[in-house]
Records
---
Amino acid sequence: MSENQKRNKPSDSLLNRLSAYQYTKWLSMNLVNEEKSSIKKYVFFISHSTKDTGLYVQDLCEIFETLRVQNFFADRDAPLGSFLPDQVKNAIDNSELFLVIFTQNSRTSPWVNQEIGYALGKGVPVIPLRKGNIRIKGLIETARYVELKQNPMETVQEVFSKLSAMSLSSSAQAIIITVVASLKLNEKFGKKYEAKK
């Protein structure tokens, strides 16, 4: 957030009274003052072992796309014939956050470990999504993680609820606030209509 945006930001007490729509509108109005070069193309870069693609990654990508949250998934987004390391670096550079699907397979993957190191070197926050009791090692050993749930939608809900407390660019904050509000509405009305059955 730029200095100008910080000065114009509503007070915390006012923020608590604003609806997600009102806050999103405030953020989008203030994006005019933010340099276009600082706006990232993706909210998430998704790092994973190709052995886990069918297990979790495709479901998470599908949910993010349904929520209109841009994410980079190399298996889907890297053009055929392109030099993959350059595509991966470019995507990490243009991502707000780095999600790593941390499983036994990814723990031993040289690609995943290189991607984590690159993201950390570029200052992109790394959020592990851990499967089971896999011990997270290395540079992200002390990172707060989200446990991968059997239901991928539950994982997404937990990721977004934790992201809303992070300090991110105003464009990412606007997306996250909108998604959190949408997830809460879906949950509220889903329970309401289930109870009527």
---
Amino acid sequence: MGVPGAGLAKGLAVTLKTMTRRSHTHQYPDVAPDLPPRSRGVIALLAENCTVCMLCARECPDWCIYIDSHKEEVVVPGAARARQRNVLDKFDIDFSLCMYCGICIEVCPFDALYWSPEFEYAEYDIKNLLHDKDQLGEWMATVPPPPAHDPNGEPAKEEATAAKRAAGGEPDSGRPARPPRAPR
């Protein structure tokens, strides 16, 4: 058993040590914070890449993404019939519901959603946190470019396969090559 009050003495020692240090208060509104690169702020939308596949809205655990679209006929010269394509009419994110998990960004197969480091979008009314595709598109200007590929790292599988095909060789699949088929 220890000395009575030893824990209290240790706690007071920590408090006194902390009181003698200089504080590290950041004067936020006057001085902009130094954010790390690629920090997460708000979700930005590149509407040209959106094909209205609805994956982001279906995978969102909070159901805070609202999408509306219509089909448009596209006439392709030489085609037997006109093709249809989805046109994005409405893409809204309700940031009062969003928990910023990033699932919508990860699941988007066409790179239409990005993280923007913009974080100053507070509103006085919670209804104003429903942002439409125009507001989400404005934040695309603040999205930083992706980091450069490490020159000493391994190339991506796609790059290695493309380089082998360009060099004239077939990519090595680990299996022996099939003999050519005999003509019938």
